[in-house]
Fold:
Amino acid sequence: MTGPGGPAKAAVMGDLGVIVAVTAGLGLVVAVLGVWAMWALRRRSIGVMLAVVMVVSVTATLAGVVAITLMMIIEGRVRDIVLSVVAVAGLVGLGVAFVLARRVVGESRRLAAAVRRLPFTAPRGLPAELQTIADTLEEANARERALEEARRELVAWVSHDLRTPLAGMRAMAEALEDGVVADPATVTRYHAQIRLEVERLSAMVDDLFELSRIHAGALRLSRARIGLSDLVADTVAGAEPLARAKGVRLAAEAGQAVPVEADAGALGRALGNLVVNAIRHTPADRTVTLRAGVEEGMACVSVSDCCGGIPAADLPRVFDVAFRGEAARTPTPDGGAGLGLAIAQGIVEAHDGMIGVVNDGPGCRFEIRLPLVR
Structure:
């Protein structure tokens, strides 16, 4: 049995179903049209997008109210009140959307104007997303300026380092060609000096090529399982002639086997650069020590010298390209172009490792840390 309120309740539920169906259908149509409009205007301003969103929401509401009104579900004064409220709400929404769009567009233009100015400085007071973009651009611009500055210094330093030996070689070659130098001893000395300078220039060109590959991300590693103790032994054997000529002793401390996944040739070059650098800056009758072991869950190999330490202001710059710890660029008999440590850093980082330097005792200690083989 159905109570007295049954027919009225059923009628209300039926009217509610009609309202939901009509408004949902019209809302879907308006939403599809809105999505199409936003796709068509995808290259326009963000303000236009916001206006489309607001127009879609207001239009969907108005369409539903008008449809229900035309179906005579809402009549008389109630209908007028509902339409008035919806119209006012729509105008308020459009007004707020317009103000918001104006601000977003204005801040976007302010950011674009700041980007065109050099050097770029991120404007403040932007909306959160735009402020994040501005700060990221500022950081990227700072990195680009630093890289450009480093490139300029590298070109200037390498040009000087190439010009000096080339000028000497040309002078000696002209002296030999013109017969200015004729005694056998001097001729032999000139030939030996020219050969030495050619070897130095060849090594510098090799270093520049290796550094360019590292910076370009073109360094290809052939990884295999190797032991750090074997790498230390090979490095000591390769650097022994230079150490003997300089009067420096080499010592190796690598007791336990420390396995790592690495390119033996590349990692050997990085460690060799550290050892050669240590020998160059260690006085005669002093010792350069290599140690290999495990520290804090990572494979660690260190090179300790007796150079007297590095000034604290220079420690952050040790691995910079062409940094030699002195303002003068005059080449020394055993000096390099300042590329060895930068190359070592690039090789170690390509192995997912870390390299650093600290002052320790009578000199400094360079450390290479690599992931252990699990």
